[in-house]
Amino acid sequence: MDAALGLAGRGVGSTFPNPAVGCVIVKDGAVVGRGFTQPGGRPHAETEALAQAGDNARGATAYVTLEPCSHHGLTPPCAESLINAGINRCVVAMEDTDTRVQGRGLELMRTAGIDVDLGIRRHEAEELNAGFLTRIRHGRPLVTLKVATTLDGRIATKSGQSKWVTGEAARRAGHMLRVRHDAILVGSGTAVLDNPRLDVRLAGLEKHSPVRVVMDGRLRLPLTHYLVARAKECQTILMTFGDNDPARLDAYKEAGVDVVILHKDEYGYISPAAALRELGERGITRLLIEGGAHIIGSLLKANLVDRIVWFRAAKIIGGDGVAASVGFGLEQLELAPKFHLTCVSKLGDDIMETYRRDF
Questions:
Q1: Over the stretch 66-111, which tens digit does the pLDDT of each residue have?
Q2: Could you give the 3-state DSSP secondary structure of residue 65?
């Protein structure tokens, strides 16, 4: 099962809207087939492993990180494929909470006479597919907040200079975060000031760049911006309001930008909850937030942040620098969102801290 989980991890960030699944087929003590969910969500892990195993699958044991699907879609149900291949035993890490499956795959195999064991490495499998589970349960992607600050919590100097707060090793780790997320979101302020590419610039991983999302209610993003100019090469979603200039909205669309119209909240801004619901409906399971401070503050205030990856540089800017989060407005300490520290890593002179929140 550990090997199957390792295989599943290869697909994280590239399989949405499907989960990332790994499958290992073992016969007479030897691995005869292995597979993981391919980019775009298919072929499924079981299909890949069975194709590799061939006739050796008969009488073998399959280790799968998620309950094999039981519904007919673009591909036949994996539960039926395992049955038809002659698998004797299936070890499954966790049940699929998708209502189209939800135990039916397990029941199909048991009815066919296959021995089914459930729950081996359940926790690890749930963590691996936390994004898929969040979308199924809450209708939105898992939200990871990525922040790079100085020791005193500043993301830029008072003049706005932010390149580079952290060192090269931390920036490489930041790009690996992008690899493992379906989409990356920034506000219009960050997009205009930093002119980010929001892609992956690690050798061999360039094709793993996430979907790019910009929240821009006032259409501040220039039509000449990198994200607009390259929209036909990498999917770019612009979230804005319907009362903007129709001609300008059409110009973004002609450039290849996917324009999404959302309603204003009570304060006249884009509702973060509405934005996340929209992304969930589009199949996004894992969303990385890279700023700016107003976006971060609004998500934290709405209790919509599930994970935080905080890069802390061994520098101090001072109180007149740009804060990582603004607009929170908390008056009582007990109202502050609470997170659990799960990991600390040293990257050169920088520290990477990972936090998670249990709702």
A1: 999 987 766 679 999 999 999 999 999 999 988 888 899 999 999 9
A2: coil
CA dist., res. 159 & res. 189, Å (int): 14
Catalytic annotation, pick one of 46, 48, 95, 278: 46
Looking at residue 74, its pLDDT comes to: 62
pLDDT for 30-66, tens place per residue? Answer: 999 999 999 999 899 999 999 999 999 999 999 999 9
Q: Is 46 a catalytic residue?
A: yes
**Tokens 């490495």 — which residue?**
121
Element (H, E) at 225: none
DSSP strand pairing (322-323 vs 154-156): antiparallel
Alpha helices in 198-331 (DSSP H): 226-229, 246-254, 272-281, 293-301
Taking CB atoms within 8 Å and a gap of at least 24, the contacts of 95-104 are 95/67, 96/19, 96/66, 96/67, 96/69, 97/133, 97/136, 97/137, 98/136, 100/69, 100/70, 100/71, 101/67, 101/69, 101/70, 101/71, 103/67, 104/70, 104/71, 104/79
Spell out the residues 6+ positions from residue 274 whose beta carbon is closer than 8 angstroms to its own.
Answer: 262, 263, 265
Distances (CA, A) of 74 to 23, 28, 48, 69, 214: 20, 33, 15, 12, 31
Q: Can you tell me the mean pLDDT for 219-234?
A: 93
* pLDDT of 175 over the 80 cut: yes
Q: What pLDDT, on a 0 to 100 scale, did the predictor assign at position 128? A: 95
Nearest to 37 by CA among 57, 58, 16: 16
DSSP class per residue in 166-184: S-HHHHHHHHHHHHT-SEE
Percent of the chain predicted with pLDDT > 90: 76
CA 335 to CA 67: how far, in whole Å? 38
| pLDDT score for 341 | 96
Beta-carbon count within 10 A of 153 CB: 17
